[in-house]
């Protein structure tokens, strides 16, 4: 069993193009996967332990992703991935899950924009400017490389200014810093929220222009408006059936159904659309397996648990 660290994964320098192709592959094998809803154990103080299992019969791999949130820890979110070989049920590797989580989340966001944004969009609004937002910007630098985009950022402490400085050399992006949620959302073609926790609603429906696409990465903050949108797409119904308005949506289906051409996506440039992607372990496990294969050239630590080879008695 290999132990694959965060630093080793980073050293692979996986391209944005590769990650984007992996996420499309992962979505299109969804029907060949066993994907039970994650188990979430919540403690006081917004602490949680999430267990995310899945099996991918197409690739003969399975695994569990463990995600924890502990306010005050830096970063507050942390994750590990346990990767199994389905042919012999052996644990192939334990991987740090932080890079994989941010990378696949960014790839999902970029794929959602490619799939559901209106034609000729030119303005993207982002609230929540942490690791996930940065990963999304990196991915968009690849997927939108032929477009000039105005990026609107919600001001919070000095994060927006730091964000602009990080990407100011990328000439395809121009930046605008907004003081309020309303200023951020009004006239934006795509609105991305990477806010990790909120107990308040973040918008009013009238702020969203015709044709707007909303991507709430952590699936929170928009329960007061989502049922008013023309279409709502879900990465997995069973993971999202708890949403407060799930039975009120005008039209909804899974992202997979659109990618596999079994359902319609955007039909005109006036539709307001939401793409809810809570994050699926099938993506984490496929990314982990791809990284496992790439790590064959690295000197990863090997761990032997020395499990029993025959029936034993206690």
Would you give an account of this structure?
- This protein folds into 2 domains: 2-100 and 281-297, ornithine cyclodeaminase, domain 1, CATH 3.30.1780.10; 105-276, NAD(P)-binding Rossmann-like Domain (Rossmann fold), CATH 3.40.50.
- With 314 residues, the protein is α/β, with parallel strands linked by helices.
- It has 9 helices and 16 strands.
- The model has no long low-confidence stretch (mean pLDDT 96).
- It is 28% helix and 26% strand.
- Helix 7 links the parallel strand 13 and strand 14 (252-254).
Distance between the termini: 26 Å
Judging by the overall fold, what is the CATH architecture of the largest domain? 3-Layer(aba) Sandwich
Q: Outline the low-pLDDT stretches.
A: none
- What is the count of helical runs? 9
The CATH first-level class of the largest domain comes to Alpha Beta
**What is the number of independent domains?**
2
Mean pLDDT: 96
């Amino acid at each position: 069993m290999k132990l694959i660290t965060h630093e080793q994964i980073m050293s692979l320098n996986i391209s944005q193009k590769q990650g984007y192709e992996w996420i499309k592959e992962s979505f299109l094998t969804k029907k060949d996967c066993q994907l039970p809803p994650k188990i979430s154990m919540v403690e006081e103080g917004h602490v949680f332990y999430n267990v995310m299992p899945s099996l991918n019969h197409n690739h003969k791999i399975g695994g569990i992703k463990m995600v924890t949130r502990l306010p005050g820890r830096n970063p507050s979110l942390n994750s590990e991935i346990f990767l199994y070989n389905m042919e012999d049920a052996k644990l192939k590797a334990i991987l740090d899950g932080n890079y994989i989580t941010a990378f696949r989340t960014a790839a999902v966001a970029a794929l959602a924009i490619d799939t559901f944004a209106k034609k000729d969009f030119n303005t993207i609004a982002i609230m929540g400017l942490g690791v996930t937002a940065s990963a999304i910007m990196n991915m968009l630098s690849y997927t939108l490389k032929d477009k000039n985009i105005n990026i609107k950022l919600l001001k919070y402490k000095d994060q927006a200014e730091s964000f602009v400085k990080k990407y100011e050399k990328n000439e395809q992006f121009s930046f605008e810093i907004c003081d309020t949620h309303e200023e951020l959302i009004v006239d934006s073609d795509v609105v991305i929220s990477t806010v990790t926790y909120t107990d308040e609603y973040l918008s009013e429906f009238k702020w969203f222009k015709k044709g707007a696409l909303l991507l709430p990465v952590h699936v929170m903050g928009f329960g007061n408006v989502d049922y008013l949108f023309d279409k709502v797409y879900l990465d997995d119904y069973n993971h999202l059936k708890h949403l407060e308005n799930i039975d009120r949506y005008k039209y909804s289906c899974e992202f997979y159904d659109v990618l596999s051409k079994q359902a319609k996506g955007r039909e005109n440039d006036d539709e307001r659309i939401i793409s809810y992607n809570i994050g699926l372990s099938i993506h984490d496990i496929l990314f982990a397996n791809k990284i496992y294969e790439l790590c064959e050239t690295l000197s990863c630590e090997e761990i032997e648990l020395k499990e029993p080879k025959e029936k034993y008695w206690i």
